[in-house]
Amino acid sequence: MSVLIKKALIIDPNSPYHQQKKDLVLENGIITTIGDDLNPKVNTIFEEDELYVSPGLFDFRATFGEPGIETKEDILTGTKAAAKGGFTGVAVTPNTLPTVSNRSTVEFIKNRANNNLVDVHPIGSISQNIEGKELAEMFDMKQAGAVAFSDHKKAIQNPNLLSRALLYTKNFEGLIVSFPNDEKINHSGQINEGIVSTTLGLEGIPHLAEELQVSRDLYLAEYNNAPIHFAAISSEKSVNIIESYKQKGVQVTADIAAHQLVFTDNDTTEFDSNYKVLPPYRLQKDIDALIEGLKSEHVNVICSDHTPREIEDKEKEFDLAKFGIINLQTAFPSMLTYLAPKTGVELIIEKMAIAPRKILNIPVPTVNENEVSNLVIYSPTKKWVFETKDIVSKSKNSPYIGTEFTGKVIAVINNNQIEENK
Length: 422
Fold this sequence. Notes:
The protein is of the alpha/beta class. Helices cover 29% and strands 23% of the residues. It folds into 2 domains: 2-53 and 370-420, Urease, subunit C, domain 1 (Roll), CATH 2.30.40.10; 56-359, TIM Barrel, CATH 3.20.20.140. The chain has 13 helices and 19 strands. Strands 1, 2, 3, 4, 5, 16, 17, 18 and 19 form a 9-stranded mixed sheet that branches. A 5-stranded parallel sheet has the order 9-10-13-14-15.
């Protein structure tokens, strides 16, 4: 494989060529030359009016169905969607069938994803079968290649179980990922608790359900002197609580779902179940606080929170429909469209390519000579409309269908393979 990327602005704070417009030559999966006006004989040339190149994106949290629920998404279709969205690596959640609760399931996922352009990293469960009762075989899973441990969106309600998990995993540098949602507070909520939920007659999910568990879990992390990561925070107060514990020296990181920066609870007024997500869309003031959290590094990662659903899971009454949207193909374009004008592109690359790998102790690729070519090539200004025909996931539950984005992935390169986004 030989590739020439012409006049691309390099966005990579770890590269000596950061913020420079250069030509890049790739040979057999290695960046061999970075310079000006290069014209070698190659198989593939990328040239656009405005072209950017960065380390390939890494998704901190996406749900595939394999093993056991391949009708929603399998590893092949999930990684295809990831590549179309600019991702060259993805951490997959353990809510499969069977759940990722032991070494053999971790090994199965890694073997199924072998030789793929997109690197797939399993997240093991905290509790056996994600039941919140007994600890899963976390050390064995870590040895087999699990990069973190989470019960996905079944929050650990038992504080003693979470405390033991934190204490246990710190002995082998395991990372606990907590989804903060006090189910006794949440109960059977459908959307954000507030004026909109009252107007629509839907039971609300209060900010308190998230914030109460953030506080509890941070107290437990401090008590055990163990690191903790929070998945999908959505409220202003959660950012403030995390900031206060960071100032005390607690090892805490957090991510947000890209779509939480785009939609508010006002978008649920049409009872379209493709806007039903967990945590729910909050208020504009929460979005503003999350953006400030990203800038101040109290929020570390932007992820897709890709959650494929079958048609019968979504095409029903709003209160009976399941939570979640597909977002691997649209997370990065949506951030280029809605977030980049407020923060710039560099912050997005930091939160979607560099920080996720650092937190999970995965090597971070660099745009530099003699480095492995793990890249996303994109245009931050190219306009395009996302249509149903563009979806490569098995599931189609997206609120973005018909949306015009400003920013498009041109191609990804990894493992000496190219996926073009034509």
